[in-house]
Write a structure and sequence with these properties.
It is a single chain. α4 crosses α13 and α6 runs parallel beside α8. It is built from 14 helices and 8 strands. The chain has 2 domains: 53 residues; 250 residues, 2-enoyl-CoA Hydratase, Chain A, domain 1. Strands 1, 2, 3, 4, 5, 6, 7 and 8 form an 8-stranded mixed β-sheet that branches. β2 and β3 form a beta hairpin.
């Protein structure tokens, strides 16, 4: 499906949603029965949504993962967790707002939450560096993960980043080393770890909090070694070839499941997560609670051995 067609159908769905809202408001005011018309509009809306979702190309999925209304890590904290207490700072440089860490409860389980945050308003996005963490963010995450290990708390990480911050300041403060340390330490932390990609899963920026015992991805999220635009700029010298590179990168949830990188694809509400954030949070919460129950039946030694082996297998190839 072309970008133009996707945009046209999305606009048509939006028009129908506005029409439904107007009819509902009018019915409330004048008590006139418009139920037949509303049923027809909702059926048309559902049909268009199903048709749109079934024909999305990989680059359309990338755009869906970047949708400005898509729920962020902070939204899931508010909708899923109880008694959340945020933990700040890396004790070395500062507090990176691109990574949220904190203690809370999900259902009856006490957990450590780590999530990458993009921000919503312009001010928030600048403060969060558009979801591109600095080394102090990864150091903060690791420090809190060690705390979770000490108190035998499971760790939940929500991945949503275009990539780690690549600017000169981040490099001077040890960006590559911070990500490498996190990967190394997460491989051997003696507590269960669940990783879920909720939007973008970009390169080492995602891997910095993405090593665990269970790896899941939302239906319209993606996970890739490089962004489609970055890949296109390198291979074709033109970012306009991004749709082509997205096809080649095999970055969709279905591709990751097929290659054995993802353990499960978590379904999203009709029209993707941004259409019904509360429903998405309920689905996500249910899956996380299920993963936690599953891990209780496994010893820590087995978890660590399996965790290490699964990441050693990624990128395996044969030579002819």
């Amino acid at each position: 499906m072309s970008e133009k067609n996707v945009t046209e159908i999305e606009n048509l769905i939006l028009e129908i949603e506005h029409h439904i809202e107007d009819l509902e408001n009018a019915s409330t005011k004048d008590n006139f029965d418009r139920s037949t018309e509303l049923i027809q509009l909702r059926e048309k809306q559902k049909s268009l949504q199903m048709g749109l979702c079934s024909k999305l190309r990989p680059y359309d999925i990338v755009k869906t993962a970047r949708h400005p209304l898509r729920p962020l890590a902070a939204d899931y904290v508010n909708m899923m967790l109880d008694d959340f207490i945020e933990l700040h700072g890396d004790r070395l440089f500062g507090d990176d707002k691109a990574i949220i860490c904190g203690l809370g409860r999900i259902g009856n389980e006490k957990i450590l939450f780590v999530g990458q945050q993009k921000g919503k308003s312009t001010k928030e996005r600048i403060a969060c560096n558009f979801g591109m963490p600095n080394p102090e963010g990864y150091r903060k995450a690791l420090q809190k993960m060690r705390l979770a290990e000490k108190f035998h708390l499971p760790i939940i990480t929500l991945i949503d980043t275009p990539g780690a911050n690549p600017d000169i300041g981040a490099e001077e403060r040890g960006q590559a080393q911070a990500i490498a340390d996190n990967i190394y330490e997460m491989c051997r932390l003696r507590t269960p770890i669940i990783n879920i990609v909720i939007g973008e899963g970009g390169s080492g920026g995602a891997l910095g909090i993405g090593v665990g015992d269970k790896f899941a991805i939302l239906e319209y999220a993606y996970y890739s070694v490089i962004s489609p635009e970055g890949c296109a700029a390198i291979l074709w010298k033109n970012a306009e070839n991004a749709p082509e590179s997205a096809e080649s990168l095999k970055l969709t949830a279905r591709d990751l499941l097929k290659f054995g990188i993802a353990d499960e694809v978590i379904p999203e509400p009709l029209g993707a997560a941004h259409k019904d954030p509360k429903a998405m949070a309920d689905i996500l919460k249910s899956h996380i609670i299920g993963y936690l129950r599953e891990m209780k039946n496994n010893s820590i030694d087995n978890l660590i051995e399996n965790r290490y082996n699964r990441y050693r297998k990624i990128g395996k190839y044969s030579e002819g």
